[in-house]
Amino acid sequence: MNLLRRLLRLDRPAAPGPPPPTPLSKAHIDAGYRMYWTKLAWDWDAERRATIAQRVMETASAPGFEENALTRRFHVPELDEQAHSGASLLALAEVLRALDAFESSGADE
Fold first, then answer.
1. Are the CB atoms for 84 and 60 separated by under 8 Å?
2. Which residues pair with 84 in a beta bridge?
3. What is the full per-residue pLDDT of the chain (109 aa) written as tens digits?
4. Of 96, 89, 85, whose CA–CA distance to 24 is shortest?
5. What are the angstrom distances between the C-alpha of 68 and each of 29, 76, 104?
6. DSSP calls for 66-102
7. Which pTM was predicted?
């Protein structure tokens, strides 16, 4: 029996598995949203950014809006057909304000 166990390597201890993933923190989630929206909104013209900023603010001020991190429950007219989390939309609002400030400062010239 020992010979069989050795041949099948059943007596060898199991190799340790990979460590468990680190849970997402609010800071990691927010940073990911900001990077995503910056990459997307960078290509929008000023008119589209202003329109979307207005629609995001309307959505964020509606009853029932909450800054949930991951659950996609909120639709923004004229943005896209997807639902977004509250935290994602607030990150989009921040990105749009930052891009507007950047453009207004003339830093892109």
1. no
2. 74
3. 566 666 666 656 667 888 888 888 999 999 999 999 999 999 999 999 999 999 999 999 999 999 999 999 999 999 999 999 999 999 999 999 999 999 888 765 5
4. 85
5. 11, 15, 31
6. ---SS---B--TTT-SS-B-HHHHHHHHHHHHHHHHH
7. 0.77
